Amino acid sequence: MIDLAIIGGGPAGLSAGLYATRGGLKDVVLFEKGMPGGQITGSSEIENYPGVKEIVSGMDFMQPWQEQCFRFGLKHEMVSVVRLNLQGKHYVLHLEDGRYIEAKSVIVSTGGRPKRTGIKGEAEFWGKGVSTCATCDGFFYKNKEVAVLGGGDTALEEAIYLTKMCSKVYLIHRREGFRAAPITIEHAKKNPKIEFLTPAVVEEIRGDASGVNALLVKNTQSGVLQELKVPGIFIFVGYEVNTEILKQEDASMLCACDNYGSVIVDLSMKTNLAGLFAAGDVRAQASKQVVCAAGDGATAALSAIAYLDAHS
What SS3 class is residue 279? Predict the structure, then answer.
């Protein structure tokens, strides 16, 4: 029986491990099959983390986190958790190697992943002109033209955000109508920097060794093809949270989740189950920023410490 299990080794999980062990917990285990770091390690440039003035790659940025977070006694199990159950007052982690481990409390920080489209060139230029985060990468396109693909709230909101720094934003959507809130659609249509390309799809993302330099866009009604000379495309076609481990044998979820599958928590990162917490991109209404995930992890760890103190 361990005191605290942390499932997921991104910024939220590592921060949780740091605060939990430095806060006095002696038996804290991080479950992450690979080296910790999370999806941010795939980013080519990070320049918006407070206190880090250099522009660094995601891999270089996360490297010192590992050393710091393991300094105070955090243990690392390089194995995947396939399911999490509640048995009585304790949680049971079912591991991929057939073992199971019991824990008094658990922090789920398994993150999520933006949905990919499968468009030709998307994988090749992922992180080299293809982005899923306007807040992270918009600044790199200051005074340049970019494209946004998608028709939901996120796509329109991010398109509006990009107009603050970009000279023009092409908003591409396969339908004439949008799924976003009416007020968001109104704001986007009133923005002079946004040009709507509908109904249209991106047939190909083109580029060279320097990254993206053009998009081949097809109007689905007329069949007309046009090439947009842009250095970047932001794709917002959905986000998938990694909550597979919470699915029980009867297909229900272990704890309360929203309609998108994200874990519902309060401001203390508490779920509706005592001793179970969630932090980072896996939780509902997450900002999907490293600094926010780190804050979530610290908050979840402090809540776990308080929970264990009250139930010791």
Answer: coil
The two structure tokens encoding residue 114: 């933006």
pLDDT tens digits, residue range 85-144? 999 999 999 999 999 999 999 999 999 888 889 999 999 999 899 999 887 889 999 999
Cα distance between residue 30 and residue 171, in whole Å: 41
Q: What is the pLDDT of residues 172-224, one digit of tens each?
A: 999 998 988 899 999 999 999 999 999 999 999 999 999 999 999 999 999 99
Strands 81-87 and 90-95: antiparallel
Helix ranges, 163-272 (H): 182-190
Contacts of 233 by beta carbon, 8 Å cutoff, 6+ apart: 129, 130, 131, 146, 147, 148, 149, 202, 205, 212, 215
Distance between CA atoms of residues 206 and 226, nearest Å: 13
Choose, from 137, 166, 257, 296, the residue flagged as catalytic.
137
Given 3, 60, 69, 136, the catalytic residue: 136
Half-sphere exposure of 58 (CA within 13 A, CB side): 16
Q: Quick check: is 257 catalytic? A: no
136 belongs to the catalytic site: yes
Backbone angles phi, psi at 42, to 5 degrees: -85, -5
What the block records as the tokens of 89 is 């007052």
Catalytic-role residue among 3, 27, 133, 153: 133
Helices (H) and strands (E) in the chain, counts: 6, 17
- Residue 182: cis peptide before it, omega within 30 degrees of 0: no
